TrEMBL record:
The protein's assembly and partners: Homodimer.
Residues covered by the Shikimate dehydrogenase substrate binding N-terminal domain: 18-100
Source species taxonomy: Bacteria, Bacillati, Actinomycetota, Actinomycetes, Micrococcales
CDD domains listed in its UniProt record: NAD_bind_Shikimate_DH (cd01065)
Name of this chain's protein: Shikimate dehydrogenase (NADP(+))
Pfam families: SDH_C, Shikimate_dh_N
Cross-referenced InterPro entries: Aminoacid_DH-like_N_sf (IPR046346), NAD(P)-bd_dom_sf (IPR036291), SDH_C (IPR041121), Shikimate_DH (IPR011342), Shikimate_DH-bd_N (IPR013708), Shikimate_DH_fam (IPR022893)
Residues the entry annotates as binding NADP(+): G137, A138, G139, G140, A141, V238, G261
Protein's organism: Cellulomonas denverensis
Pathway: Metabolic intermediate biosynthesis; chorismate biosynthesis; chorismate from D-erythrose 4-phosphate and phosphoenolpyruvate: step 4/7; Aromatic compound metabolism; 3,4-dihydroxybenzoate biosynthesis; 3-dehydroquinate from D-quinate (NAD(+) route)
Molecular function GO terms recorded: NADP binding; quinate 3-dehydrogenase (NAD+) activity; shikimate 3-dehydrogenase (NADP+) activity
EC number: 1.1.1.25
Amino acid sequence: MPDGTIRAITGHTELLGLIAYPIRHSMSPRMHNLALAELDLDYAYLAFEVDTDQLADAVTGLRALRVRGWNVSMPNKMAILPLLDDLSPAARMVGAVNTVVNDDGHLTGHVTDGIGYMTALREAGIDPAGRRITMIGAGGAGTAIAIQAALDGVERIDIFNRRDAVWPVAEHTVQTIAEQTSATAVLHDLDDIEDFRACVAASSVLANATNVGMGTLKDLSPLPDPEVLRPDLFVSDVVYSPARTLFLAQAEAAGCRTMNGLGMMLHQGAAAFELWTGTPMPLNQIRAELFGEPQED
């Protein structure tokens, strides 16, 4: 409803949601429910704490209940793939999903994270075309960002990750970028500090695409060497709760311009919203409600 009043739930109300762990910090329920109220659409959006060991049961239940759609966040973005019936071309390329659409029991996975991040980056005044980016993390969000950055004309992206279970995923991401885009992508071991220093020194953007800085990791930073920070480096974080992570605080102390994950969250959410409802999210109103920004005419 245009005045922001939440529509009463009835027997016709359809359900939307978010499955992740942890997730109680998420702003997605407020964002989507505000948008639904603004457009007077008969849906309700809820958050469900679902870890990977509960994921299969959760997806079976959501399918059976004909929940219209849901977002997927860490740690489920890749684990959900075998539980779906189909993938969008972008999700197939990325190998991860952050949005599921349920069409009468047929589940299609989409990925909007990369679009959300790149849109937020442009809003911050950073045109990715021709730039070199260094990124920490190669999981679901990192993969989506890396591939979208390559599609959007980034010259080179250096991806740093530890040699853990995600390493093979990162190798596949680099191969995909090489085969399907004109960008250069190189995978590095995050434990190689000298390599990290050299890549950041040659980059104009440094991005954290891990969950370090939130939840039980809120007192940690993914940055292996704060000395790499310099005033002309743009530093971004996919984490938005807390709004100012230790990573961003380190960057600000070094004089860097920074961006947290709120803009990415907003724009990836808007893309998902339209997939479910067929209606664009009223971004100006949502910005005003969530971020206190004035509405544009």
